[in-house]
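Researcher: Go.
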Amino acid sequence: MLAIPQEGLKTTHQTSSWLGEAPEDEDGEEQRVLLRFGSHRDPALVARLVQYNLIEPENAFWKAGHRAAVTYREREHSLAVPYNHQEDGFPLGRWLSDQRRAMRGGGLPAKRAGELEELGIVWEPADEAWEENLGAARAYFEAYETLAAPVTAAMLDRPVGQFLANARKKNGLGKEPVRAQRRAALLATIDPDWNPDWPIDWQRHYAALAGLVARGSVLAYVEPGTMVHGMDMGRWLARQQRDWTRLNTEQQHRLHVLGVKPAARPQKAPARAGAKAGAAKGSDAFTRGLTALRQYIAREGKTVVGRQHVEQLPDGTPVRLGVFLSNHKNRRDRLSEQQLAALAELGLDWA
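Model: Structure:
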């Protein structure tokens, strides 16, 4: 049975209400969700609503994060931000972590990546740890006016001495040339002499000595027993004057600028053949002792050795390490600059 059309009936369209509270002004009307499912919507208007409610807030959040990053960078001189850190209420640490994740996934726009790189962001976790150590190195320099730190030195709860020692090794700044050059430049910005051509121990003492000399003046005399950061500067200076010819030209020049002159002393008689043989034998014994000490520190994590302790070398050679250290400490004045530097590099304060 067919339905019979009914005349006079009007079709009514049920309209949906606006979603959201009515705005105070007319311009704000388009900024609230106004989907009426019963009527056609202009695609351009829908696109504008998506931008208002999704895109623009996201842009505002990114700009807030960038402002917080700028503030932190100006204050701390790096973007090594702890994950839970908040900058004026903004979750900066978490936000930076999100940006790194987006960068790894290829979802971070190039413009935003560039703006963060201008602030010195580190994208990889390994680089992030390196930047934290760099911040500790900067704090160490502010305290001691040098990056010639002992290998055992720590600053801001970071092993800054070991960090710098590793950085001076071959490929210690990374095998990728561009990254290595950038890291070297950052360290040189803090201290141009962070990786000198002479022993680090010498550089550490020299920096302390330079700190004793007032700008524009020269050094007259330093009494033995004058301690600076645990170093006997008078004793060290006397040794430099005595062993002047063992220093290279640049070392001599730097000391000369401070007013240091070599000590006058008579020429020594030529050493006998037997004495030369004894010196060579002593050098071999020192090398074995140094190897044993390095092995002991790597295993035990300390430089304190019992006097009766005997360290076995990989080739089976026994080394009376405790006696070795005691004897060399007592005969410190007879050690060469290179021997003292080698011992100091392993963290022996008396060297």
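Model: The radius of gyration is 35 Å.
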